[in-house]
Design a protein that fits this description.
Elements (H helix, E strand, L loop, with lengths): L2 H21 L3 H24 L9 H19 L3 H23 L5 H19 L10 E2 L12 H24 L2 H11 L1 H6 L4 H20 L2 H5 L1 E2 L1 H4 L2 H14 L5 H20 L5 H15 L3 H14 L1
Antiparallel strand pairs: 1-2
Helix pairs in contact: 1-6, 2-6, 2-9, 2-12, 2-13, 3-4, 3-5, 3-9, 3-12, 4-9, 7-9, 12-13, 12-14, 12-15, 13-14
């Protein structure tokens, strides 16, 4: 996609989201769209490290919860507005990503994946014992009375998450087509060969973990205002971690568009099933879809589409 077309598409999506707030009053739709957009941003963030660089991260829920509890702590201490809380969640998530990368990026494969999972468990244990943010009992968040020109606070949160998700997609696309992105792809394909060719592998991997952590922290920062009650079970949910991994794999991890397609497909399916059947089916849906795509289309939807287009061109 050419830059002009890409930016035009982002502007069109944003305009459509803003227009939706003036024609649809039912708050359910904004709740559902918020969840889908949050999942999309998590999938895009996971793909920065897991797809572009080839380092599988099982600690997505930990970074998400770091953003959420940064909001809880700073709101309680300073009463900061939402934009500053989002920036703070991204900053803390990025710093944790940098620290985690520095400590664990010398590990590879399953050892790195286990290390990221251990990080999430350690952070959850700390939060469970941190009484200032509610500990294991959780903490309530009061939604502000003012919500700009929107009719409800959930409408404003929907637009905020739409802006954040579009920004994350823009960063992912810019990264994938940059020199840094080509270096990450070299690491994913053959890290030893990349080092021999002069690619600063450790530096690039640290950038990857930092950007991933910052994006996930930003995705989690508005979460306390969305649910109004945060406790470790919801912030460190297995469902969040599974979605963050499955959606890029279903969409295709080698391309920036893959996580977006996977998240929109899986997220929309989950929201429909939640209303028509039961929310308990959501993890089963992800598992079945993941098994099907790994078996029949290991390169994801984007990979299948690329293969089809190449055959037509030939």
């Amino acid at each position: 996609m050419k830059p002009v077309a890409f930016w035009g598409a982002l502007a069109a999506v944003l305009a459509a989201g803003l227009a939706l707030t003036s024609v649809v009053a039912n708050e359910y739709y904004y709740n559902a769209l918020y969840v889908i957009l949050q999942a999309t941003m998590m999938a895009v963030a996971w793909n920065i490290l897991g797809g572009f660089t080839g380092y599988v991260n099982f600690g997505s829920a930990g970074f998400f919860a770091i953003g959420a509890y940064t909001t809880v702590a700073l709101n309680k201490a300073l009463g900061l507005p939402l934009p500053l809380l989002i920036l703070a969640g991204g900053a803390v998530g990025g710093l944790v990503g940098l620290g985690l990368g520095y400590l664990t990026l010398r590990l590879k494969g399953v050892y790195f994946a286990i290390a990221t999972l251990a990080m999430a468990i350690v952070v959850e244990t700390l939060v469970n014992n941190w009484s200032y943010v509610g500990g294991a009992k959780g903490s309530y968040m009061l939604t502000p009375e003012k919500h700009l020109w929107f009719d409800s606070y959930i409408q404003m949160l929907f637009v905020v998450m739409l802006l954040l998700t579009l920004s994350a997609v823009a960063v992912s696309r810019a990264l994938s087509s940059s020199r840094l992105g080509r270096g990450l792809a070299a690491i994913r394909d053959d890290e030893v060969a990349a080092e021999c060719a002069g690619v600063p592998t450790l530096r690039l991997k640290l950038v990857s973990t930092t950007v991933m952590g910052a994006m996930m922290g930003i995705a989690g920062a508005p979460f306390p205002y969305f649910v109004t009650y945060v406790e470790p079970g919801s912030a460190f949910s297995l469902f969040i971690a599974v979605n963050a991994i499955a959606m890029p794999m279903i969409g295709g991890t080698a391309h920036w568009l893959g996580p977006v397609i996977g998240a929109l497909l899986v997220g929309t399916t989950q929201e429909i099933v939640k209303v028509t059947v039961s929310s308990e089916m959501n993890v089963l849906i992800v598992g079945v879809m993941l098994v099907v795509f790994i078996t029949l289309a290991p390169q994801g939807i984007v990979g299948v589409a690329r293969k089809y287009l190449r055959r037509r061109a030939a």
